[in-house]
Amino acid sequence: MKIKGDFLGILITSVVMVFFFWRSVPRSTVNSTKSVIPKAKSITVNEKQRNFLTRMRNIQYGRKQTIKEACRKYKNDIGEVDVFKKPPWNIAVNDEYRFIYCFTPKVASTSWKRILLVLNGFMNDTGDQPQYVVNRAGMSSFHYLDERSPKDIKYILDSYTKFMFTRNPFSRVLSAFRNKLAPDTNYSQSDVWRKKLGYYISTLYNKNNEPVVDKDTSYDLTFKDFVRFLIDENQTNHKHWENIHWGYQYDRCRPCEIKYDIIGNFETLQDDSKYIMKITGTSDVTSFPSSNGSNPTNSSSKTSLQSYFSGLPLEYVRSLYERFKIDFEMFGYKRPTLNIPYK
């Protein structure tokens, strides 16, 4: 009987110890199983962050209203695309953080691709790889919206965070010229661009109509001739007249059909990116990269715009605006004047 009593005593003591140990273990340790794809990211904010998020939501409301009005105004010019059957090819999908990003060249797209490559494990840090790797090999690791079935596309468009970025069309055109085609560019692939377009434009508007192909020493393409090419009605069938580096931004991302949650502007890149990363929960994983790895041209500065656009004939400026008028109006950029060719 004594053995039985001792056994019961030990058993009761053990049960009591286990009970108190269980009560002392943090819930986060007990419930350690998490879904691979977060259904909803909880956002913890302080008052400063709350004010920032409120301000950004108000800005986004205004931008989306502007897009809505432009879509209605230019409905016949824009046309309509069934994005469930044929979405834009340039929309990357991240299922883990439940967002899609429509990337447009010359609108901080390389910076955002770097973030996506960190999130999908292709890079450990946003500065790991040079620009050409990010824009070629890196992009092959993305998942794209046009790879999904119409049913999945509808689900993603209904439930994922959707964002895109825009830029003043004039500064985007200038950036494309300075980065890809200007005689003094330090872009590593500039020789490719000269051969496929630069020499063609130089020859096209050469007063003596003398060919300059492969004559590196005579390559002197001007911004004036580049703009002339962009507004030349006789060149609309040229394969690079609507090149992705300066073509219509509204056509790249189709914001009239896809109701983006966040419309970022290149001109407010830091705040808009901070907002997106906070909303998607990605700010806990990585940070927005510097522009050092993307050949920045500083083409959005007032000084640069004035310097290049002031040398254009007034009719060139007017014609260039007419070509990109829908982008100007849809994304809230003011109509340029002769003296102020920027927003």
Question: Could you explain how this protein is built, in words?
Answer:
By secondary structure, the chain is mainly alpha-helical. Helices cover 47% and strands 6% of the residues. The protein contains 15 helices and five strands. A five-stranded mixed β-sheet has the order 3-1-2-4-5, with helices on both faces. The longest helix has 27 residues, at 47-73. It is globular and about 65 Å long. Mean pLDDT is 86; it is low at 18-38.
Largest sheet: 5 strands, mixed
Helix content: 40-55%
Strand content: 5-15%
C-alpha termini separation: 94 Å
| Quaternary | single chain
Order of helices and strands: HHHHEEHHEHEHHHHEHHHH
Number of strands: 5
Mean pLDDT: 86
- Low-confidence segments, given as residue ranges, are 18-38
Number of helices: 15
- Strand line-up across the major sheet: 3-1-2-4-5
Provide tags for this entry.
single chain, 343 residues, mainly alpha, 5-stranded mixed β-sheet, 15 helices, globular
